[in-house]
Amino acid sequence: MTRLSPAAKVLAAAVALAAVSLGVYCTGGPVVKGAVVTLLSMLVAGTVLARMIRAIGPTRVPYALLLTGFTLLIAVNLMWMITVPWGGADLPPDGPYRLLLGLSYLFLLAAAFIAMAPSVRRDPGGVLDAATMGVALASATWQAFLSPALHDADAPASQRVYAFTITIILSAAAGIVTGVGVNGSVPRAALPVLGYFATAILIAVAANVLDSVLVDATTGMSPDWIDSLWTVSYAAAWAAVAHPAGPEAFAVGKPRPSRLSSKRLALLGAALVATPAIAVTRELAGWYTEWLSGALAHLAILIMVLLRVGQLARAHRAAEARLQVLADHDVLTGLPNRRSVDRHLSQLVSKVDAGRSPGVVVAFIDLDGFKEINDTRGHATGDQLLQRVTRRLAAAARIDQGDVLGRLGGDEFILIAECDPAHALQSIEARLRGAFDEPVLLTDGLATISASIGSASATRGEPCTEDALLTLADHAMYEDKRRRRATRNA
Fold first, then answer.
1. pLDDT-derived band at 334, boundaries 50, 70, 90
2. Are both 29 and 82 inside the same structural domain?
3. What is the pTM assigned to this prediction?
């Protein structure tokens, strides 16, 4: 006999819960209907409370917000039971009822936003695209169906504002949850949790939409079967909270790179024109058109698209900056590479030749014995040694005074200093040699390393070229290497 996994058990329980509660709701009287929805909201709130008690760290915050939201929904359901089936009223008091319902949605939205905030920060473009599409779909639905239906039912302004706000907010939330699920920032095991949450939200949107579209113009009431959708919505919400990977849905990681493809551009373009196109079509046909709410929704979509464009512009500038850094710097050590060093030296030589600089010193540093360490202790150790040496040389150089330390490749470094060689040359060489006085501590032990150093210089107004300085410094370095080798062999 095959045993069901915990996730499969939650799915089976959610389906059974939805089926049973829907059946009882549809066959029961007003009191039974109210009791079913109220008990479901209590079940979800109790499950959230149990999760919150066991949660640790930041995950307690979204659970606390979820608990507040579902507690308010319990109050909404109790208000309906007290005033309608028990009190004999046709509808609950409109103001307090909608206020509590709106507050519950805001707390649930806040919980979703805080839980998904890390993904929003890491992939603002992808999540913003999803939210934009959610709002655009809601705006088009509002303009095409909801607003005309409320107008035909002669609904009061407060009901219209409420329906418009809730539809837009819930649709944006559904878009964000969907976007986070698509961009890969949530562990695969937690994807069903997002699916359950998205299902609960979408059913809530559908219930609100149908409640507005199918409202009776005479009585102001909607068909009773619409409220039965809340049983399925609560069952989906319970499955999201009770799922064994529920806490993992808050463990947002690094998302996949989000690219604004031609398909996404087309969808964003459709999002921009959908609401105005529907409004213009209805106006030309002589049908009722709600221009104010349509304009507000279109403004929200336009702002979101502009935010996306701004995010793309920032990402483009950041990419250009990274490419510039990669073009001018050595990847391993972070030092300026040969290309950057040559450019700096060329500019400095021009200043010295023109008498606008006191002089220049160029020092070549070539590590002795690096190849042996690299071959015997591994390339990873060799790379670590180069990084350690880089830090020592940077400390010996006067980086804060404009000295440029670069890596020419392999185990060769170069220091370029703008100074009067007569006063600074010996000091520069002494500081560079001092960087190798102590052994270097690596992860696999100590490494004794030395360096051959050769320098060349030019003073103010002295004719010189970049190539001449580099050649002289290179020859001086090799002369120092031969002298040091002869000394060791003597």
1. confident
2. yes
3. 0.60
